[in-house]
Amino acid sequence: MILAILKMIGCLALLMFGMKTMSEGLQKLTGGHLRTVLGTMTKHRVGGLLTGTFVTAAVQSSTATTVMTVSFVNAGLLTLKQAIPVIMGANIGTTATAWIMSIFGFQFNMSSVVWPFFGLGIVLTYVRKNSVKSFGEFVFGFAFMFLGLTTLRENAVAMDLSHNQTIIDFFASTGGWGIFSTLLFLLLGGILTMCVQSSAAIMAITLILCSSGVLPIYQGIALVMGENIGTTVTSNLAALSASTQARRAALAHMLFNVFGVVWILIVFNPFVNMVCHVVGFDPTFVPQTQEEIAHASVRVTYALSGFHTAFNLCNVLLLIWFIKPMEKLICKIIKDKDDGEDFKIQFISAGLMSTAELSLFEARQEISLFVEKTEKMFHMVPELLRIKDENEFNKLFEHIEKYESISDSFEVEIANYLNQVSAGRLSPASKMALQSMMKEISEIESIGDACYNMARVIRRKFQGEEDFTEEQYSHIDQMIKLCNDALVHMVAVVEDVPLANAPDALKFEYQINDFRKTLKEKNVEDINAQRYSYQIGVHYMDIINDCEKLGDYIVNVVEAHANRRLSV
C-alpha cells in the first residue's frame, strides 16, 4: 500500500512537471506577444474577459496570466478596474485544463501516443532556432503531462480503488452529512491545493477518484470548489509582501471565487444535477456491466469538467456588471499606504514568479522603477544648490542621502533576484537580457553615486564662507540641463518608449564632454585672473566633473539596455 501511495505521488509530480514545462515553453515562444495582447486589449470589460480567457487557455496557467496582469497594474499600464475582467477570464481559461484531462486522459489511451512526442521534443530542442526550441519544450511538457496522467490512472486501477472497502467506507460515512459533507470536502480541496500549489494536480486526483467510482460526484464537485478557493489563498499569501496593487489584484481573485462558492452552495444539488444532465451523466444510476462502468467513468469526468466551466461562466456573468463596486470594495479593504511604500521595490517583493521568463519581465519593471527613483534624486541636486536656509538645506541633503541608500538597496535586491532567476530555465535570448540587466543596475546605481557626490560638494561649499559667482551658477545650470536631457533620453530608452533612439545618447555625451572641456579651461583662466578663490574653483569643477561622469554612466546604461556598443 505504501509503495502504491509513493507511486501516486510520483505520478502527480510527473503531471505537475509536465504542466510547468508546457507553460514555460509556450511563454518563451509567445510571451512577448501575450504581454502585448494583455496590455492593449483590456480597455473594455468584454475585451479584458476574452483576453484573460484565451491567454490562460494558451499558456495553461492562470497564475501566469494573473502575474502579467498584476505587473501591468503595478506599472500603471492597466487600472485595477481593467485588471478584474482579465482575472475573471483567467478563471474561465483555466477550465480548459480539466477538459484536456477528461477528453484525452480518460477517453483515449495516451500511453502509446506520448512516446513519439518525446522523440519529437528531443529533436526540436536540438534545433538552433530559439522559437523551435521553445516549441520543443512545449511538446516535452505535453508528453510528460499525459504520461503522468496515464500512469496516475493506471496506478489507481492497479490499486483497485473501487473494491477498497476502507476508502469506500470513508467516503460513504462522510457523504451522508448533507451540507456539512459538502463543506468538509470543500475545505479538504482548498487545503490540498494550498499544499501542492497546483489546482490541476488536485483536479487530476478528483477525476481519478470519481472515475474509479469510489468518490461520489457531489463530494468530487465540492473538492473542485475547494480547489478554486485554495488557488486564490496561495496567490494572496504570495502577495502579502508585494505592493498595494498586487495585493488588491490577488484579493479580487479571491473575492470572485468566494462569491461564486457561496451562491453555488445555495443551489448546489439543482446546479450539479443540471450540469450532469447536460453532459449525459446520471448521478443516481448504478452501472452493472463493464460497458456501463466504462461509460460512467468517462461521463463523470465530463460532469466534473462541465461543472468547473459552468461555475466560472455563471460567476462571470453575475459579476461582470459589478466591476466598479468590486473595485471600490477592494480599495476600501486594502487602502493606500502612507508609510513610504514609494521607497520600496514593488514588482519582485513577492519572490520568483511562476516561470523564469515571467520573473525577467518583473525584473525589467523593477529596473524601470529604479531609473525613475534615480531621476528624482538627480532633480534634487539643482534644488539643493540654490537653497540658502540651513534647516531647509540639511533637510533636503538628508533626503538625497536617503535616496542614495535606497539606490544601493535597489541594486542589491534586483541583483540577488536576477541571480535566482539565472538558476531557472532560460532561453539564450533571455540569458543575454539577464546579463544586460545586471550591467544596467550597476550603472544606474553609479548615477545615484554621482548625484550624491555632487550633493556632498554642494554641502562643503555651503559650509564655507564663499559662494559661486553668478557666471559659475549659470554654467552649472547649463551643465545640469545637458545631463537632464541625457537622463530623460535614457529613461525613455529603458522604458522602451517608441522613437527613443539609443545612439542619440552619444550626442548628449559629446555635448557634455565638450562643455566640460570648455569650462575646465575657463576655470583655470578665472582663477589666474583672481575672479574667485582656488577653493571655490575646486568645488565648481568637482560638480562639473561629476556631471561628466554621470553622462558616462548614462551612455553605459543605454548601451547595456540596447545590448550593443554604441558608435557613430
What is this structure's SSE topology?
Blueprint lengths: L1 H39 L4 H15 L2 H14 L4 H14 L1 H12 L7 H12 L4 H30 L5 H10 L4 H18 L2 H14 L4 H22 L5 H23 L1 H12 L10 H30 L3 H11 L22 H31 L3 H33 L5 H36 L6 H25 L9 H25 L5 H29 L6
Helix pairs in contact: 1-2, 1-3, 1-7, 1-10, 2-3, 2-4, 3-4, 3-12, 3-16, 4-12, 4-14, 4-15, 5-7, 5-10, 5-14, 6-7, 7-10, 9-11, 10-11, 10-14, 11-12, 11-14, 12-14, 13-14, 16-17, 16-18, 16-19, 17-18, 18-21, 19-20, 19-21, 20-21
Question: What's the short story on this structure?
Answer:
The protein is an all-alpha fold. It has 21 helices and no strands.
Radius of gyration: 30 Å
Helix content range of the residues, please?
over 70%
Whole-number average pLDDT?
81
Low-confidence stretches: none
Return the string of H and E elements: HHHHHHHHHHHHHHHHHHHHH
Biggest sheet layout: none
Count all strands and give the number. Answer: 0
Total domains, how many? 2
N-end to C-end Cα span: 73 Å
Please state roughly what percent of the residues sit in beta strands, choosing from under 5%, 5-15%, 15-25%, 25-35%, 35-45% or over 45%: under 5%
Overall structural class, as computed from helix and strand content, comes to: mainly alpha
Principal-axes geometry comes out as elongated
| DSSP summary: helix tally | 21
Which short descriptors sum up this protein?
0% strand; elongated; 21 helices; Methane Monooxygenase Hydroxylase, Chain G, domain 1; single chain; 568 residues; mainly alpha; 2 domains
Describe this structure in words.
The chain has 568 residues and is mainly alpha-helical. The protein folds into two domains: 2-333, no CATH class; 354-562, Up-down Bundle (Methane Monooxygenase Hydroxylase, Chain G, domain 1), CATH 1.20.58.220. It has helices at 2-40, 45-59, 62-75, 80-93, 95-106, 114-125, 130-159, 165-174, 179-196, 199-212, 217-238, 244-266, 268-279, 290-319, 323-333, 356-386, 390-422, 428-463, 470-494, 504-528, 534-562. It is elongated and about 110 Å long.
